[in-house]
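Hey, quick one: can you model this chain's 3D structure?
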Amino acid sequence: MKDMKKRALLFILLLGIISFFSDFTHEGARSIYGPYLGIIGASALIISFTAGLGEFIGQALRLLTGWIADKTKKYWTMMIVGYAINLLAIPLLGLVGESFWEVAIILILLERVGKAIRAPAKSTLTSFTQPHLGAGKAFAINEALDQLGAFLGPLIVFFILSSRGGGSLDNYRFAFLILGIFAIVTLCILVFARFKYPNPDQFEQTKTEVKDIKKYRTFVIYMVAISLIAMGFMDYPVIAYHIDSNQLITSTAIPLLYALAMGVDAIAALIAGHWFDKKGIITLTFPIFLSSLAPLFILLFQQTWSLVLGVILWGIGMGAQESVLKAVVAKLIPKTHRARGYGIFATVFGLFWFIGSLIIGITYDMNLYLVVGFVILMECAGIAVLIYLSKTLKKQKESDALV
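Sure thing. Here's the predicted structure for all 403 residues.
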């Protein structure tokens, strides 16, 4: 048992290293999407629309890729193909000509497609270690390493832009090409992991599973909560566009703010994952509430201190989203249907993120107070559903104990 726990931990750490280099690449790029698209001619609405559409495509496709993963069990193949598309789109952005913002948007969307291909398989592989590590801890370790890369990627982009004289189009292109080096490193480590752990599904032994309708009912309730939370979460490209267009800080410092958010994300993920294994789904409510206040400080106060505080709160919300939200799915859905569960989860999340991003983009040009009000309303509604779900799960557990 101890040997299996050690192997499970080493496996999670290896997946985490892959996530580290992967996020170093695409989060480094993501930190400059907003100002980069602005320079080559995209408007605030187009940037917000692209961010939302990218999330929708990248999440909705997981309904199909999750089903394929469950049917074929080719988890490693889907990860290799997905990571290749996901990461190699980044250096190609460095080759896009001026005023060809449509081409850049296609590549950004393609990067999301790659993530859609590999994400359900990766989340499922991570979930297989839960009998030995706990779902919260497994996803939190992965997310912490993931976000360490997401912290250092934007930091490197910041130094590249600073050393080359600022946020010009040529400098953005150069940054994308440099990030391509880390894309290649990620793919090499991924191939190594595939041969080191050919059958990671053996970490979780399949038991005879009873199709309890109550379990799937709680999953539906969870999807309602996820819908509301996703609608109210403002994406970073919109935040970066707002900061850059209002000249709140220098354009070269925008990736630095994103790096701060990713650092906070990593710490928040570890804390949230730990408490999820101890206290359950109710632990999500606090970080989601804090993140709902981020637009208040970023959009309305428009001071350096308020930007930093807002980005910190935004990072706390991201940490909870990327770790605990996925860990909940592992608790609600059995092993044999889990990849599909992650596909449904991602599709619902992506659809409502897209709807929310569209609403935020439209209201941004109307009144910033409307944006802040919309975000807080949606996140608080999501929290209310999570509290109801927590009580439902508790009653279900007490009822099962009496049987």
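One thing worth noting: The longest helix spans residues 368-402.
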